[in-house]
């Protein structure tokens, strides 16, 4: 951003600083101003130019530019920035109809980030903006947003307004959180505690009726959770001994609905005071800080969906590596999800070559074996937890030709890539990003090297990103196919790498891009794969901003994509 653009002569400065009227300052020529008056004018113009640069991206349909813009606008301490964030939240939460406005619609990540940005500036919100902020959060939660403990903060804030302010959405949000939150008798989850306190503060019959929904109570452990959430209501009936069934909960709480308890009004409720902020406080533009004049090109950030397919060597020596990939899938997809709200994952287990002319005797034997296969695809899905679980328990038995038909010379890379191409239903929308990550521990099937390199080149020419995780130092054939033909990378890994992470675990500490980069540690190979795919989707100049978005959205992504535990059972 050129200095001449933001040093125009008719700006209205920050009146609290100067003690001047808007009209007087607007009419005063620059040459007649004091140095302090000029500084504030330039400061104001810099903020305006900064907002003009980023604010249009808040209206985009794609997730990534909206996230980048939200982080950028959240930094700016101005009424205009606050208004832009509130407007973005209205549409990202689903509170307003995006179709009529012709702008991006509901997106839980964008909604949470805008909501959290506004939480850091509550003192500057008008009464109407504050009411919108609370209601938009509830609407987003009713649609599945605010995962995990993030909904605890939401309900703490929402409890400062009457339940009637939120309409039907408040019952939906309460039921959604009850349905998805695991139950722990000894220590209920923070989001259930916050919901219990909010329900007690509201004293609202419609919220109670939503929680007593018969379909909700049929869910596993839902009766215990509902009974707990209602337990702090004034005039609560006698407690149920032991774990209650659905009918017990209905019998206990139905009479309460006929009681004379009055729903809470705004005057009855406590004011919410924000704490434990997950974004830095907004700042006034600094004329000496070049980061306030960074360029932004939304066109460089357009991604309309992400499809990732693991292609895993399943010939018998990869059992532990497969479990590591399964556990890493949630973390990898959480990173890729900054690119698009339409992110899907898949897995293709490959034992043998698929194409007839490349098959060996073991490949043909596997095709007719009751427990054998050449390739087994798990379809592309947005249900990453389910995919990870299926991968974790996919049998990768020790090599045994007679029992499993899983002995093959090397890794059937060509077969796996063909199976991924033909066996998965890829997103064909323009702008969708496709990536295949090969996972192996051996050389390629003998005499398939040239065909594999040609196939990798063809994939790359169609825009498919090809990378590989390999337990050994890659030989010349792996390098030729993946690095030279496809323009990808072969990354060394071992199963134990899943037990470490270099991703930031703390909230964004400061607004500068350099500060965000410093929060990254020594990333593991799985995280490296994800970041390389992300970097391939945008021009190099925006890689630092993507790192900043990853840190800022980290609390949401960690809640939405929890790592799979190694001792998890079926």
Give a concise summary:
By secondary structure, the protein is of the alpha/beta class. Helix content is 47%, strand content 7%.
Write the layout of secondary structure elements.
Blueprint (H helix, E strand, L loop, with lengths): L2 H4 L8 H4 L3 H6 L7 H20 L8 H13 L3 H15 L4 H4 L6 H12 L7 H16 L7 H9 L10 H12 L9 H13 L2 H7 L2 H4 L4 H9 L15 H12 L48 E8 L5 H18 L6 E8 L10 H7 L7 E7 L2 H9 L8 H4 L8 H11 L9 E8 L8 H13 L3 E6 L5 H10 L4 E3 L20 H6 L6 H13 L5 H18 L10
Parallel strand pairs: 1-2, 1-4, 4-5, 5-6
Antiparallel strand pairs: 2-3
Helix pairs in contact: 5-8, 5-26, 6-8, 6-9, 8-9, 9-10, 9-11, 10-12, 11-13, 12-15, 15-16, 17-19, 17-25, 22-23
Q: What is the beta-strand fraction?
A: 5-15%
What's the tally of helices?
26
Measured as a percent range, the helix fraction is 40-55%
Helix/strand/pairing category: alpha/beta
**What is the spatial order of strands in the main beta sheet?**
3-2-1-4-5-6
Q: Specify the biggest β-sheet.
A: 6 strands, mixed
What is the strand tally? 6
Instruction: List low-pLDDT spans.
Output: 1-25, 565-570
Shape: flat
| Nearest-integer average pLDDT | 88
Q: What Rg is obtained from the alpha carbons, in whole angstroms?
A: 28 Å
Distance between the termini: 56 Å
Give structural notes.
The protein is an alpha/beta fold and 570 residues long. It has helices spanning 3-6, 15-18, 22-27, 35-54, 63-75, 79-93, 98-101, 108-119, 127-142, 150-158, 169-180, 190-202, 205-211, 214-217, 222-230, 246-257, 319-336, 361-367, 384-392, 401-404, 413-423, 449-461, 476-485, 513-518, 525-537, 543-560, and strands at 306-313, 343-350, 375-381, 433-440, 465-470, 490-492. Strands 3-2-1-4-5-6 form a six-stranded mixed beta sheet, sandwiched between helices. α17 links the parallel β1 and β2 (343-350). It is flat and about 80 Å long. The termini are far apart.
């Amino acid at each position: 951003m050129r200095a001449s653009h933001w040093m125009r002569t008719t700006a209205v400065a920050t009146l609290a600083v100067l003690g001047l009227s808007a009209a007087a300052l607007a009419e005063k020529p620059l040459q007649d101003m004091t140095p302090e008056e000029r500084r504030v004018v330039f400061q104001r113009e810099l903020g305006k130019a900064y907002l003009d640069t980023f604010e249009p991206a808040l209206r985009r349909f794609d997730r990534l530019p909206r996230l980048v813009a939200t982080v950028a606008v959240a930094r700016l301490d101005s009424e205009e920035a606050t208004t832009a964030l509130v407007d973005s939240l209205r549409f990202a939460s689903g509170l307003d109809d995006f179709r009529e406005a012709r702008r991006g619609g509901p997106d839980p990540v964008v909604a949470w980030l805008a909501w959290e940005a506004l939480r850091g500036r509550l003192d500057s919100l008008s009464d109407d903006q504050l009411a919108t902020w609370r209601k938009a959060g509830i609407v987003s939660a009713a649609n599945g947003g605010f995962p995990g403990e993030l909904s605890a903060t939401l309900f703490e804030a929402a409890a400062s307004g009457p339940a009637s302010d939120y309409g039907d959405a408040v019952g939906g949000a309460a039921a959604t959180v009850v349905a998805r939150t695991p139950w722990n008798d000894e220590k209920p989850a923070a989001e259930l505690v916050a919901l219990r306190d909010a329900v007690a503060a509201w004293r609202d019959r419609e919220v109670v009726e939503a929680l007593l929904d018969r379909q909700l109570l049929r869910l596993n452990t839902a009766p215990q959770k509902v009974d707990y959430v209602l337990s702090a209501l004034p005039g609560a009936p006698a407690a149920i001994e032991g774990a209650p069934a659905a009918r017990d909960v209905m019998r206990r709480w139905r009479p309460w609905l006929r009681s004379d308890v009055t729903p809470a009004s705004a005057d009855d409720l406590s004011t919410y005071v924000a704490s434990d902020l997950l974004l830095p406080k907004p700042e006034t533009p600094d004329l000496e800080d070049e980061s306030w004049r960074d360029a932004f090109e939304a066109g460089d950030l357009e991604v309309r969906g992400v499809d990732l397919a693991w292609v895993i060597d399943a010939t018998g020596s990869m059992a532990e590596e497969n479990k590591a990939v399964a556990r890493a899938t949630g973390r990898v997809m959480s990173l890729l999800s900054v690119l698009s709200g339409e992110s899907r994952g898949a897995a293709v287990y490959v034992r043998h070559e698929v194409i007839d002319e490349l098959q060996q005797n073991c490949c043909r034997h596997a095709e007719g074996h009751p427990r054998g296969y050449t390739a087994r695809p798990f379809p592309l899905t947005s249900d990453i937890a389910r995919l990870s679980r299926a991968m974790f328990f996919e049998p990768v038995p020790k090599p045994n030709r007679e029992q499993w038909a899983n002995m093959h010379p090397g890794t059937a890379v060509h077969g796996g890539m063909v199976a991924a191409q033909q066996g998965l239903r890829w997103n064909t929308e323009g702008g969708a990003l496709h990536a295949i990550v090969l996972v192996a521990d051996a050389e390629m099937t003998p005499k398939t090297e040239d065909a594999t390199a040609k196939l990798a080149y063809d994939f790359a020419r169609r825009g498919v990103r090809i990378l590989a995780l390999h337990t050994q130092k890659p030989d010349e054939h792996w390098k030729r196919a993946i690095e030279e033909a496809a323009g990808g990378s072969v990354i060394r890994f071992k199963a134990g790498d899943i037990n470490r992470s270099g991703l930031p675990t703390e909230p964004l500490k400061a607004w500068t891009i350099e500060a965000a980069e410093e929060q990254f540690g020594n990333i593991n190979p799985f995280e490296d794969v994800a970041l390389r795919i992300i970097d391939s989707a945008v021009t190099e100049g925006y890689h630092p901003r993507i790192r900043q978005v990853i840190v800022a959205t980290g609390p949401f992504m960690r809640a939405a994509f929890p790592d799979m535990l190694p001792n998890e059972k079926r």
